[in-house]
Amino acid sequence: MAGLKKAVVKTALETLYFTGAHLALRPWLGGVGSILTLHHVRPPVAGGFQPNRLLEISPVYLERVIVRLRRTGVDIVTLDEARRRLMEGDFRRRFVCLTFDDGYRDNLRHAFPVLKKYEAPFTLYIPTSFPDRVGDLWWLTLEHVIARNSRVALVMDGKNQSFDCSTTEAKYALFDHIYWWLRDFEEEEDMRRALRDLGTRYGIDTAEFCNDLCMTWGELGELAADPLTTIGAHTVNHIMLKKASDEAVRTEMRMSAATIEAALGVKPRHFAYPIGDRTSAGPREFAIAAELGFTTAVTTRPGVLFPEHRAHLMALPRLSLNGEYQRLRYTTVLMSGAPTGLRNRLRRVDAA
Length: 352
Description:
Largest sheet: 8 strands, parallel
CATH topology of the largest domain: TIM Barrel
Shape: globular
Radius of gyration: 20 Å
Strand content: 15-25%
Number of strands: 12
Structural class: alpha/beta
């Protein structure tokens, strides 16, 4: 199923590019700018089963994207500057913001040298439990359990179930099946408990994911000291806020900002909703972010920025630099606004 979806997406992007439809549609669907979502930036790793590969791009590809943006006259700006342009209606030049979620160490090792080389400003959104070394990167627990075993057993919907995952195709199918079953839990803690139990059963040391992959406060301090860097908040525990109570949402947002300010001496003005799709953040979360004084907040709802977003600064869309589609023509098509505009049925703002 994942392979079929990927093929369909690639076909759509290729069609828009080679027919020139993305250029024809750009005057209506291209907006005034965009915010790009990135997670990992690191050299490719060999291996057939990498279900989270969509969350990483190579340093070479990041450099190619930046060079293409500069050559085509697109400004790479901070979120503060993007907000100013939206509020003041300053759309003389198209603009892009680069944003990195979760604070992975490879952002320092592999992304920052590229960003520094081209003096490209960027934003890091930090879930504070990650540098505190108590974060739960649950999606990696699921990946590693399936990767290391040819059969996986767990209790699903009150029944003991066992699944064959002896082939790469079967592993991808099982990952999708369990992932979306977990995402459907009403309570996030129930979902995480199921993953912890699964990790324990198969000997996965989940604590090592934070230690190995996420920056320490000291490393974050190195980046925060550079004027190119904006530090944003991303909750404490990287939870899907829509599943939490009003009080819990406020606490996660407020405490993440307070912890970052205490650790780095910088009070975050910008926020990113974890997961960030419609199931994870909606009007209640947008209102709370505004109430707590953030000046922008980003989702992962796909789309480009239009002048109308000046009235929806707590629900800004982003475009994902997806590791499965690392070709410049795909990024060019995405930034034309054509794929997301058609997907959104020509609706400019999605804040409901």
